[in-house]
Amino acid sequence: MLILNLVNRLFEPLQLRDLRISNRIWLPPMCQYHAFDGNGTPEDWHFVHYGARAAGGFGLIITESPALSPRLGSLPYVLVCGMTGKSEPGLALLISFMLEDPR
What we know:
The protein is elongated. It is an alpha+beta fold. The protein has three helices and four strands, in the order H-E-E-E-H-E-H. Strands 1-2 form a two-stranded antiparallel sheet. The protein has a two-stranded parallel sheet with strand order 3-4. It is 31% helix and 10% strand. It has helices at 2-9, 44-55, 88-99, and strands at 14-16, 19-21, 26-27, 60-61.
């Protein structure tokens, strides 16, 4: 019975301050190395990869470990989330895409 209760809690929402997460199933960060444009901008591959996970029902998706600038990237081809002004519009679009209801 205890295990069943714990499993059921996986599907309960979680409130963290102002953030409401629909369930407790989270996708951890995974470096995918598919930002080939040199600016760390998400590409079609990211939309397919993360969009599929969002449609699959993850409550929270943590994207790959983004660098703060292309120069500070620990590895080539990672997403960049910094003050370059080049990757941010693509990241915002990716987030909006993942938040869309797939039904």
